[in-house]
Amino acid sequence: MHQYRTHTCGALTIAQEGQAVRLSGWIHRKRDHGNLLFIDLRDHYGITQCVIQKTSPMFLAAEQVRYESVVTITGHVVKRTPETVNKKMSTGQIEVVIDVFHIDSQAEILPIQVNSDQEFPEETRLKYRFLDLRREKMHANIVLRSQIISSLRRRMIAQNFLEIQTPILTSSSPEGARDYLVPSRLHPGKFYALPQAPQQFKQLLMVAGFDRYFQIAPCFRDEDARADRSPGEFYQLDFEMSYVTQEDIFQAIEPVLHGVFTEFAHGRQICSLPFPRFTYEEAMLKYGCDKPDIRNPLLISDVTPVFQGSTFNAFAKAIEKGAHVRAIPAPNTHAQPRSFFDKLNAWAQAQGAPGLGYIVFTSQEAKGPIAKFLDAERLAQLQTLTGCKEGDAVFFVCAPKAEAEKLSGQARTRIGQELNLIDQNRFDFCWVIDFPMYEYNEDTKKIDFSHNPFSMPQGGLEALLTQDPLTIKAYQYDIVCNGIELSSGAVRNHLPEVMYKAFEIAGYPPSVVEQKFGGMLNAFKYGAPPHGGCAPGIDRIVMLLANEPNLREVVAFPMNQQAQDILMQAPGEVTDLQLKELHIRKQLPPEKKTN
Length: 595
Prior knowledge:
By secondary structure, this protein is of the alpha+beta class. The strands form six sheets. The chain has an eight-stranded mixed β-sheet, with helices on both faces.
């Protein structure tokens, strides 16, 4: 018999009745029934109920052993009586009568209860993550993550993508976030950077002739934490294809994502193929953001003409100064109490807005604080633009364009939630396409790339030479699921002359382009195929399928919100000798004075 186990704790069934078996695992629960002590033994595969009689010489050891201690049990399988069968367990028809009980590792008093759903502070959970991961839900999330990655890998290989690993130590490049820098011991004063993404390398692989590449790629960005973004590192399904248009890229990745979500949806509905597409401008107008949750049926309308020149001076005068008015419908709300409207108005004020004006359309007249300022013709125009009918209400946001888009998008989400319009049992994907190539940075007072700097501008070199940069669109796209951006992607700029001009517009002279992107730029001079790709985020995919609100619930060893690994105590101090070898001195910021 094996030293530790003949079976796992999820394997035994009625077929093994009467057999001698050996199990190893953690003490999950104990129940003392006087003459009998029941022990639930747990391992990675499941739980088996074991029982030891009080007359056993090992009863005292079993009775006193702490939860989460590791033990090895030798015994024989017996059939449970009908009234004690547990149909919720795969091993619920049997139990193991203990003949030999051996403690492999005694656990100390637990800082986290593993066998319950009790909530614990995040700091405690991360400090004792190895215990947190023993909990049923967390354990299942990490198993799910592994299964999802295996499914993604399998589906990419089936489409003839090659899995190729790209370097972790590379050069720093301006890709929108801060780099993590690694000092070089052999080259004093110089630094490697951890890759924000394998962007340049995967493009070089296309130039090298590999045609279809993918990897489950680690990415590193020194940025603040969010619920849908881990600080420090994250993983993405990174892929690139040669001789493709934007349409080819969509057709390659859509069935992969649709298949994975279908495989792990567990009864939740998935939107059909092909995924709907919205231009960036359309998304910002209709949904108020470039990450639309299209489960929400509400659509925003531009109703600026309705209020232009009206007697509602608050809007009319703002419009004269360039403001836009957005309308968000709220269907079948005529019977809602006044508190419904007051609550939404208070919510808008909490966002920093003056409020959220509204009109309710009834069978007799239009009601609400704004209705009296609009004549019949303007009210009819309003109904036409918004699609509102009798019994519906419409809410308004009036602000400069960017503010109006943002607040109306937030209001759309809030109203959808208040009216229970968002189906929580669905996964709805969409593409957002035709992003602007550039944007104006109010802080630096200059033109910046708005998305990926390696994207091909629509219209190519001619557009860069002849158009206002802020009017140029790029072959850039995002894929979104339930309002969460899974990935950005683009058809790449593979022509050196276009690349030089694109970066020049953003303020990078040729010398900087050659310094920062010399390897890729040089490669493009030797015959680069048209190519493009995308990189759906693994962490976000798992978060959605696990129905978790935070990425830390689907990552084995995440950092906290301050980008600290509490378990491993990173970042940490290093020795003076290590710093000397790296030719580095510490220059710490001055300590903040406390009163």
